[in-house]
Amino acid sequence: MSVKIFDTPEVQDFLKTVSGFDQSGGNERAKQIMHRLLSDLYRLVDDYDVTPEEFWSSVSVLNALGEGTQFGLLAPGLGFDHYLDMRMDAEDKQRGLSGGTPRTIEGPLYVAGAPEAEGFARMDDGTDSGAEVMWLTGQVRDVDGQPVTGAKVEIWHADSKGGYSFFDPSQSEYNLRRTIITDSQGRYTARSIIPSGYGVPEGCATDQVLKLLGRHGQRPAHIHYFISAPGHKHLTTQINLAGDPYTFDDFAFATREELVIEGRRIEDPAEADKRGLEGPFT
Ligand code: MBD
Ligand code: FE
Q1: What is the number of the ligand 1 atom nearest to the C-alpha of 254?
Q2: Is 181 in contact with 153 (CB distance < 8 Å)?
Q3: Which residue CA neighbors atom 5 of ligand 1 most closely?
Q4: What three-state secondary structure class fits 137?
């Protein structure tokens, strides 16, 4: 059966009523956006002859997406996070702003309030027995290349099984999440463990939607950063560890060429020892 009623005055009037156009209360922008959203969806139902069964099965998916952080997980999978980045990049360009490390998406797994340290932090709690030690060092510079002292570097990443503390109940609070304040040369150092890539949990609502699209829910191994300092724009970014099979096949579309980092394996025990003795590991 195929009926086309979208363009009738009844439907057009109905859409305005549903969107609150004949009510004085509410929020004008919310009404406009809802009207546009509903118009697009009503039109879609008409164009594709969406059946009531199909509609109610979509409602079940939406209900399942209301659980935990499910919509926060599907949103990057549907490209919304990256699309917002593309818009911010275009806005920067329009304003003549350029240079610096590229931004990329925050993702749904940031947790505020990580322990703060000056210059150096150990990020792992030492319980991930299968993990290899990873050193992260860097220097925060402004767009003119000048080091920024006292910048706040927030770092968070997954463990060797791809799980994040607070979302993976087997991990301790704030494991693999730290805030490091840069030293007098704008530098920071972290001792942590090499993360694995992340996979959307099997069978969750996000996984179901991705499977309907014939897509996977894998991310390559990555490390998240927020960089902030007074008088500077906040930077949200990530680095990818080169060599991951998903580096350029990320379900969340966060990889950027400039952010793929080749790690250097420290084989020399003397160098490893020296590094190991550098920081206060408490
Ligand atoms: C992640 O670790 C992540 O960074 C994103 C964007 C989505 C899901 C899991
Ligand atoms: Fe992540």
Answers
A1: 6
A2: yes
A3: 107
A4: strand
For residue 177, report the distance from its CA to the centre of ligand 1, in Å: 14
Q: Is the CB of 163 under 6 A from ligand 1?
A: no
Q: Is the CB of 191 under 6 A from ligand 1?
A: no
Which atom of ligand 1 is nearest the CA belonging to 252?
6
- Mean pLDDT across the chain, nearest whole number? 95
76 lines ligand 1 (CB under 6 A): yes
pLDDT tens sequence across 81-130:
999 999 999 999 999 998 899 999 999 999 999 999 999 999 999 999 88
C-alpha atoms less than 13 angstroms from C-alpha of 176 in its C-beta half-sphere: 30
b/e 120-137 (16+ beta carbons within 10 angstroms → b): bbbbbeeebeebeebbbe
Q: What is the pLDDT of residue 278?
A: 55
Task: Check if 73 has its Cβ closer than 6 Å to any atom of ligand 1.
Answer: yes
Which amino acid is present at 156? Answer: W
Which amino acid is present at 153?
A: V
The response to whether residue 107 sits with its C-beta less than 6 Å from ligand 1 reads: yes
Q: Whose CA is closest to 177, among 226, 128, 220?
A: 226
ipTM for this prediction: 0.97
- Ligand 2 centre from 147 Cα, in Å? 27
Q: Is residue 109 within 6 Å of ligand 1 at its C-beta?
A: yes
With b for 16 or more beta-carbon neighbours within 10 A and e for fewer, the 207-239 pattern comes to bbbbeeeeebbbbbbbbbbbbbbeeeeebbbbb
From edge to edge, which strands make up the β-sheet containing 235-241? 116-118, 177-181, 152-157, 222-228, 235-241, 260-261
Beta bridge partners of 147: 141
SS3 (DSSP) at 118: strand
